[in-house]
Design goal:
By secondary structure, the chain is of the alpha/beta class. Helix content is 33%, strand content 16%. The chain has helices at 36-47, 79-91, 146-166, 180-185, 200-203, 205-217, 240-252, 279-289, 302-310, 321-325, 329-337, and strands at 8-10, 13-15, 19-21, 52-59, 71-72, 95-101, 127-128, 142-143, 170-175, 224-229, 257-261, 292-296, 316-319. The chain has an 8-stranded parallel beta barrel, surrounded by 7 helices. Strand 11 (257-261), helix 8 and strand 12 form a beta-alpha-beta unit. Helix 2 packs across helix 3 (146-166), helix 3 runs parallel beside helix 6 (205-217) and helix 7 (240-252) crosses helix 8 (279-289). The chain is globular. Flavin mononucleotide (FMN) binds next to strand 4 and helix 10.
Length: 351
């Protein structure tokens, strides 16, 4: 019996297994629109047996894009392409989520391969809780006013409505990796003197407000996930203890899954990745906050993923780069481990 390949039901949605394709920017959209690349890329992972595919960071505002080639959900016209991906992947047995994102001070308005060419990185329109640049050679973002905060919340609301229209099975709020919401959470990037800065309660306020909007807009049956950077990996930054406290609050607000990544808020961070390096975060948050978690980060083998789920260290396992190397990763893992799973009818002769 494989725990990894067992179903999991969250709210009204049943996932065929615990294997998640982690959100990964493809830098293949023009003006935010889904391209043929996205269709082929995501549908391949559905054929390959993923239980859940989370679409890459998708911008809720044009000024909140990580690059000029990000997917967007800031226009009604974006819905049609997104719906096509959802329908296709669902027909192939996968569930499909979308990661809603705002890049904050790390917003850039040129393709990623031009980053090295620009003199000063960052978009001129970038906004952030406090006017602190990401690093040397980065533009200083404009400090958000109360009006800006309300505007961005309204953008999330509209994006959520569009995500519902497109038919997504799950929505993930991107509150990690040094982007806008993480910039509110971390004392390294939030120096505000108003009710959005200072104490823990104030720094988590913006995320909780976004989560409340999400729960208002999503059907009761749709699961909600939040990706956090469980630690900043920098002295004086956000801590694992704060993540545990935050996870308890998120659970109370109706968040079903905490997706546990880490870092990328500061150029000062010093840490080395190693297999499963973020799993202890997912494990501790699951145990102490009593909320479902997703583990991610250098999870590359079936044995590793199976160990995480069967020992109750996380409920789901997200895989990034290994899924880029092999779109059929779940099928391969199941075959090598002798686990019987449903294989696409068209491919059965190979099994
Ligand atoms: C090409 C690429 C793009 C990524 N884009 C995103 C993203 O849009 N949102 C996000 O939360 N993480 C993003 N990540 C991080 C991955 O989701 C994942 O957390 C990370 O790669 C660690 O998992 P892995 O070791 O299995 O690759 C990206 C990673 C890669 C390699």
């Amino acid at each position: 019996m494989s725990s990894l390949f067992s179903e999991i039901k969250i709210r009204g949605v049943t996932f065929r297994n615990r294997i998640v394709m982690s959100p990964m920017c493809m830098y293949s959209a023009r003006d935010g629109f889904v391209s043929d690349w996205h269709i082929v890329h995501y549908a391949s992972r559905a054929v390959g047996g993923a239980g859940l595919i989370i679409l890459e960071a998708t911008a809720v505002e044009e000024r909140g894009r990580i690059s000029s080639l990000d997917l967007g959900i800031y226009r009604d016209e974006h819905v049609e392409g997104l719906r096509r991906i959802v329908q296709l992947c669902r027909e192939l047995g996968a569930r499909v989520g979308i990661q809603l994102a705002h890049a904050g001070r790390k917003a850039e308005d040129y393709p990623p391969w031009e980053r090295e060419k620009v003199k000063v990185r960052g978009s001129r329109d970038a906004i952030a809780p406090s006017p602190i640049p990401f690093g040397k050679n980065w533009r200083t973002p404009r400090e958000m006013t109360k009006k800006d905060i309300e505007e961005v919340k309204e953008s999330y609301r509209k994006a959520l409505r569009r995500a519902v229209e497109a038919g997504f099975d799950l929505v993930e709020i991107h509150a990690a990796h040094g982007y806008l919401i993480h910039e509110f959470l971390s004392p390294l990037t939030n120096r505000r003197k108003d009710e959005y800065g200072g104490s823990f309660e104030n720094r988590v306020r913006f995320l909780l407000e976004v989560v409340r909007i999400a729960r208002e807009e999503l059907p009761e049956s749709t699961p909600l996930s939040v990706r956090i950077s469980a630690v900043d990996h920098v002295e004086g930054g956000w801590t694992l203890e704060e993540s545990v406290e935050l996870a308890k609050l998120l659970k109370e607000e109706g968040v079903d899954l905490v997706d546990c990544s880490s870092g990328r808020i500061s150029q000062e961070e010093r840490f080395k990745e190693y297999p499963g390096h973020q799993v202890p975060f997912a494990e501790r948050i699951r145990k102490e906050a009593g909320v479902r978690t997703m583990a991610v980060g250098m999870i590359r083998t079936y044995e590793q993923a199976e160990e995480i789920v069967s020992n109750g260290r996380a409920d789901m396992v997200a895989v990034g780069r290994e899924f880029l190397r092999d779109p059929y990763l779940p099928l391969r893992w199941a075959k090598n481990a002798g686990v019987e799973i449903e294989v696409p009818r068209q491919y059965r002769r190979a099994w």
